[in-house]
């Protein structure tokens, strides 16, 4: 994947390259509509040197299900001989919101594919609108911070847990700053012999309002504050990984959420005295979810 | 082959069984359900080795068909009504990618109010989506069209998705005797699936469904227009070849007793059969009437239709759908086809049968009477309590 037209500092191509590095097998990619798709396939050019298909916004999972169905049929009939892997990339809008049904259906049917959510926590391609993944208190163009309402009113949907509730072979949360962890998880996903899901935090300098040079720092901070814990669910077992495991074991400090909030322009309004309770609510929510996760990981 | 008794849905499933497509992905919806039920039985009994996927929605069913077809698989699905409407976005993508997907559409009304019975509003909603649309009159045609559709869609000069339409309940659920052709003959007729590019050709990677700016989108749409221009001669050729193995000769438009007719009524689907009965009756009374069955709706055979209609005194266009705020969708196509002809008949529109309302012989006789005596309005409603 090269020659793309994504913004400087975008985490998406970094994540995609790390994921694709995780298998030596030939791969076929499906892509939901979004930043990543429009910037890598502008006709007559393409950034892809592997087979790639984009059909619509909400159906990267069902499109790849069809490709996989064709693979099974054609392999059975001796028309395809290679051992091929299948991967879908979708943003959080395409995964948490509009594409959720197709993803849930594809996982329930047991297609063998890895779904990667490039989670930048809003609809960035169309100009930073709220999604089901947008943080509470974040301002977007459809949940602006005004005098009465301080940005998004709701906490994000915990999609990774919802996906895990499908009881699929493999699911994980990852971050591009810890590339070893991410690649290992992608490799497990590719070899899961069934549906696998990877939710990857994908900082967006435009939407998050941070400097383009700080993308990887942002991803790291998300993990260090436990906003974005690194963990995996493998054949029924929950496991913390990377920095999250070290935080749980006490060898690394758990940074306060305030560090995270002050690092990005999208939360700048929360610095006002009036909205300080929002920051507290976010901290409480992070703590509660962290404790829940520790229990699930039997820590 | 021996005649068998099946309903229209079962006949389509039988055609698919004989063809044994690589992938069938579908979601059940009345009155299409029997197709996927019957086909899933063939799968369960190992009579086909198709990869059969029960989707969680029609939107995903068509998305899967797109993925499968782009991966080089012969692909089929079936739907109706709200299901077709739910696929609407994906219909354009299937044709835009030039994927020869085959879809049986069991024509049914659209909500609201919810109604499960036959009309053509679903297919008419898909009119501009770049799919070839073929309508069948009875179970025999539902079966024959299902087979011919593969040859038409997959022709290398076309590569367009194709829907074969059959009237919900009237054809889908009516038991009729029809004559299938032998498995081997079907297989030989449809041949091996060929593709131009495949996602599974990993050594020659292809980007499907790229992003078009203003600099290429129009050209890509024009290529679809150009492909549509090849359809009519190829459909005729496929129908001729099919006649050789089946003994049944179809055409894109089928005139009935039109040789010396002054008045004609046009219909698509099962109503075309009823028209013939009435024509026979009126002919026996000495009336110079005929009827026309339109089998191909997209691409619309304007020239061929105008050739038949030019010089007639009156033409009635039967529309089992309505374009709200305008007329029935078939009517303007027929009138437009005649615009440049010297001897244009009077053309009247008859909206009928919405939501499965029966069309009765007396009503059709009334249409002919109005044409003969030049009565009625430009747009008329049959059988509705106004």
Characterization of this structure:
Chain A has 299 residues and is α/β, with parallel strands linked by helices. Chain A contains twelve helices and eight strands. Chain A has helices spanning 12-20, 35-38, 60-76, 92-97, 100-109, 159-164, 179-190, 205-208, 215-224, 242-249, 257-262, 276-296; strands at residues 27-31, 52-54, 85-91, 114-119, 170-174, 196-201, 231-234, 237-240. Chain A has an eight-stranded mixed β-sheet with strand order 2-1-3-4-6-5-7-8, with helices on both faces. In chain A, strand 5 (170-174), helix 7 and strand 6 form a beta-alpha-beta unit. The longest helix of chain A is centred in the C-terminal third of the chain and has 21 residues, at 276-296. Chain A starts with 11 loop residues before the first helix and ends with a helix. With 386 residues, chain B is of the alpha/beta class. Helices cover 40% and strands 18% of the residues of chain B. Chain B has helices at residues 8-19, 33-44, 58-70, 81-96, 121-125, 139-153, 183-190, 217-229, 231-246, 271-284, 302-309, 330-338, 361-372, and strands at 4-6, 23-26, 51-54, 75-79, 102-107, 132-135, 162-167, 176-178, 207-208, 253-256, 263-267, 289-294, 296-298, 314-319, 346-351, 379-381. In chain B, the strands form three sheets. A seven-stranded mixed β-sheet of chain B has the order 3-2-4-5-7-6-13, with helices on both faces. In chain B, helix 1 (8-19) packs parallel to helix 2. Chain B is globular and about 70 Å long. The model of chain B has no long low-confidence stretch (mean pLDDT 98). Chains A and B meet through strand 1, strand 2, helix 3 and helix 5 of A and strand 3, helix 3, helix 4 and strand 9 of B.
């Amino acid at each position: 994947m090269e020659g793309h037209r994504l913004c400087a500092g975008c985490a998406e191509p970094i994540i995609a390259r790390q994921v694709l590095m995780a298998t030596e097998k030939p791969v076929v990619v499906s892509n939901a509509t979004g930043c990543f798709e429009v910037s890598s396939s502008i006709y007559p050019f393409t950034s892809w040197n592997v087979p790639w298909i984009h059909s619509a916004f909400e159906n990267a999972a069902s499109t790849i299900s069809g490709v996989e169905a064709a693979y099974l049929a054609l392999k059975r009939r001796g028309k395809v001989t290679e051992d091929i892997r299948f991967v879908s990339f979708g943003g959080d809008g395409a995964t948490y919101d509009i594409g959720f049904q197709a993803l849930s259906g594809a996982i329930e049917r047991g297609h063998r594919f890895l779904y990667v959510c490039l989670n930048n926590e809003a609809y960035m391609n169309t100009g930073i609108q709220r999604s089901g993944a947008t943080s509470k208190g974040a301002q977007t163009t459809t949940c602006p911070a005004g005098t009465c309402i301080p940005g998004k009113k709701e906490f994000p949907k915990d999609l990774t847990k919802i996906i895990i509730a499908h009881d699929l072979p493999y699911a994980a949360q990852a971050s591009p700053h810890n590339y070893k962890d991410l690649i290992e998880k992608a490799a497990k996903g590719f070899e899961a012999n069934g549906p696998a899901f990877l939710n990857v935090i994908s900082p967006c300098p435009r939407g998050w309002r941070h400097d383009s040079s700080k993308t990887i720092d942002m991803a790291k901070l998300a993990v260090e504050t436990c906003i974005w814990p690194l963990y995996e669910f493998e054949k029924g077992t929950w496991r913390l990984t990377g920095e999250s495991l070290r935080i749980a074991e006490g060898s690394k400090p758990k940074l306060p959420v305030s560090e995270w909030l002050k690092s990005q322009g999208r939360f700048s309004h929360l610095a006002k005295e009036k909205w300080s309770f929002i920051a507290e609510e976010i901290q409480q929510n992070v703590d509660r979810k962290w404790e829940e996760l520790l229990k699930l990981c039997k820590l | 082959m021996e005649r068998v008794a099946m309903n229209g849905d079962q006949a389509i499933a039988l055609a698919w069984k004989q063809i044994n497509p690589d992938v069938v992905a579908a979601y059940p919806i009345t009155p299409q359900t029997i197709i996927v039920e019957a086909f899933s039985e063939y799968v369960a009994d190992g009579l086909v080795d198709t990869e059969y996927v029960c989707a969680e929605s029609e939107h995903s069913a068509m998305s899967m068909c797109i993925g499968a077809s782009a991966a080089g698989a012969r692909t089929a699905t079936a739907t109706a009504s709200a299901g077709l409407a739910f696929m609407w976005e994906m219909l354009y993508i299937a044709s835009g990618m030039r994927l020869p997907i085959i879809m049986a559409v069991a024509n049914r009304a659209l909500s609201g109010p919810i109604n499960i019975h036959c009309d053509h509003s679903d297919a008419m909603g898909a009119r501009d989506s770049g799919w070839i649309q073929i309508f069948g009159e009875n179970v025999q045609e539902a079966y024959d069209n299902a087979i011919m559709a593969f040859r038409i869609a997959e022709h290398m000069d076309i590569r367009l998705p194709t829907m074969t339409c059959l009237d919900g309940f009237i054809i889908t659920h009516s038991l009729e005797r029809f004559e299938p052709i032998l498995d081997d003959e079907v297989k030989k007729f449809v041949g091996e699936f060929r593709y131009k590019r495949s996602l599974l050709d990993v050594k020659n990677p292809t980007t499907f469904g790229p992003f078009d700016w203003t600099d290429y989108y129009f050209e890509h749409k024009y290529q679809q227009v150009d492909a549509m221009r090849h359809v009519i001669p190829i459909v005729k050729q496929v129908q001729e070849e099919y006649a050789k193995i089946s003994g049944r000769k179809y055409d894109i438009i089928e005139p009935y007793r039109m040789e010396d007719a002054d008045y004609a009524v046009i219909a698509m689907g099962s109503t075309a059969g009823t028209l013939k009965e009435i024509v026979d009756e009126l002919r026996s009374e000495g009336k110079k009437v005929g009827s026309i069955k339109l089998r191909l709706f997209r691409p619309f055979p304007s020239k061929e239709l105008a050739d038949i209609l030019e010089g007639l005194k009156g033409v009635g266009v039967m529309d089992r759908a309505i374009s709200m705020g305008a007329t029935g969708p078939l009517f303007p196509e027929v009138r437009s086809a005649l615009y440049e002809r010297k001897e244009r008949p009077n053309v009247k529109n008859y909206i009928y049968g919405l939501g499965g309302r029966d069309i009765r012989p007396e009503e059709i006789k009334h249409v002919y009477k109005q044409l003969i005596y030049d009565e009625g309005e430009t747009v008329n409603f049959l059988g509705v309590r106004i």
